[in-house]
Design brief:
The chain has 207 residues and is α+β, with helices and mostly antiparallel strands. It has helices spanning 4-14, 63-90, 98-102, 144-150; strands at 132-138, 160-166, 175-179, 184-187, 195-196, 199-200.
C-alpha cells in the first residue's frame, strides 16, 4: 500500500519543478477549477491521498521538468492500482468503481463504516490533475449470480483500466494506462490510450 510518506516525497519532487523560466505569466483560473492555494481535504487513515501540484506551463517543457511530472503522474496510476488490489481482496476478488474504493461501506455488504477507505474519495471526481486528463474505464461487470454467490458489491467489475493523458500535445509528454492485470503501459505520442474490455490494448509496458 502506498503510504503518506511516499506521497509527501512525491509532492517534494514538484516543489522546484516549475522555475522562473518554465512558468508562464499567470492566467485567470477557470470557475470550475480549484485555485492552487485551495485547502486539500485530509484523507481518512490508510487512504491514499492525491498529490496537489501547480499546473504545468503551456509550452514545451525541459527534460528535467517533464521527467519529474511524469514520475508524479505514474504515482497517481500506481495509487489507483494498489487501491484496486486491496479492494478486490475485500470484495471476493472483484474490482470496482473509484466511487466504491472511496466509500467501500456503501458497496461491499457488511463492510465496516469505521474502516478506512482504499482510496481518497476525491479521486472519483476525475478532475484533471498535474496537467493530465484522467479516465476510469470499467471492464465487464460481474454477473448477478457471481455477485449473489460471493455477496460482493453490486457494481463489482472483472476488469478495469485507468488512463492519464497530457492535456496539451506540445508538452511532449507520454500518456499512461494502468489496468487490472497489474500492467502500467505508456504511449510516447501522448495520445489517449486505447482500452478494450477494461484492459489497456495495445500495451507497451513500462519496465
Amino acid at each position: 500500500m502506498l503510504r503518506a510518506p511516499l506521497l509527501l516525497a512525491a509532492a517534494a519532487f514538484l516543489s522546484p519543478m516549475l522555475d522562473a523560466q518554465d512558468v508562464p505569466a499567470p492566467s485567470p483560473t477557470p470557475a470550475a477549477a480549484a485555485p492552487e492555494t485551495a485547502p486539500v481535504a485530509t484523507p481518512a487513515p490508510g487512504a491514499a491521498a492525491p498529490v496537489a501540484t501547480p499546473q504545468p506551463p503551456a509550452r514545451p517543457m525541459s527534460p528535467e521538468v517533464a521527467r519529474t511530472l511524469e514520475r508524479n503522474v505514474l504515482l497517481v496510476a500506481q495509487t489507483v492500482m494498489a487501491a484496486e488490489r486491496m479492494y478486490a481482496a475485500a470484495n471476493h476478488g472483484f474490482f470496482d468503481t473509484l466511487h466504491c474504493l472511496g466509500v467501500p461501506w456503501e458497496c461491499i455488504p457488511g463492510f465496516s463504516a469505521e474502516a478506512a477507505p482504499f482510496l481518497d474519495p476525491s479521486y472519483d471526481s476525475l478532475e484533471p490533475r498535474l496537467g493530465f486528463a484522467r479516465r476510469f474505464h470499467p471492464g465487464p461487470p460481474a454477473t448477478a449470480d457471481e455477485i449473489r454467490a460471493a455477496q460482493a458489491s453490486p457494481s463489482s467489475l472483472k476488469a478495469y483500466a485507468f488512463t492519464l493523458a497530457p492535456q496539451r500535445s506540445e508538452w511532449g509528454l507520454r500518456s499512461f494506462c494502468a489496468d487490472s492485470k497489474g500492467r502500467l503501459c505508456a504511449r510516447d505520442d501522448g495520445a489517449e490510450p486505447t482500452v478494450k474490455n477494461g484492459l489497456c490494448d495495445p500495451c507497451r509496458k513500462l519496465e
